[in-house]
Amino acid sequence: MLEILTHTGTHIDCPLHFIWGGSTVTDMPLDATVGPARVIEIEDPHMITPEELAKHDIKKGERILCKTSNSPTVYESPVWIEDYVYLGEEAAKYLAEKQISLFGMDAITVGNWRDNDSIMATHKSLLEAGIYILEGCALADVPAGEYELVCLPLRILNGDASPCREILRPLKK
Fold first, then answer.
1. 11 noted as active-site residue
2. Among residues 7, 11, 17, 123, which one is catalytic?
3. What would the DSSP string read from start to end of the chain?
């Protein structure tokens, strides 16, 4: 028997997580988490900002994974790391305006865990825009670049989230 939370380890957040009546894991289209993706490196040691994202010329429909200084510290730590790099509220709005299809990062949640309003705002900005959120990505050994993302969540009936396995294969140019 295995008992875990739907937000355990690498997992995908669906709209129902923060939007009443939102879509669930079983509603999620397969192409939300399977297809081309881009890993970008974030230099800011505290927060992902719109200014830093703007440097990467993000396009509509992209799947964006942010590698921060969280890798590998946060992902591999056996204890909770309080000071992790998180997605700022304005950066979440920026990504929503860009109309990407998926946002992922190497932290267990996208917002600042010390600020419930930050958690709510970042999730809602992305999820209300139809952007699925991949949290807890293992990106320590992944250089910035273009990849094929294969990420399959468990099919949890009415699930607001699901653990998943994220695999990145370099795209050949």
1. no
2. 17
3. -----TTSSSEEE-GGGTSTT---GGGS-GGGTEEEEEEEE---SSEE-HHHHHTT---TT-EEEEE-TTTTHHHH-SS--SS--EE-HHHHHHHHHHT-SEEEESSSSSS-TT-HHHHHHHHHHHHHTT-EEEES---TT--SEEEEEEEEE---TT-SEEEEEEEEEEPP-
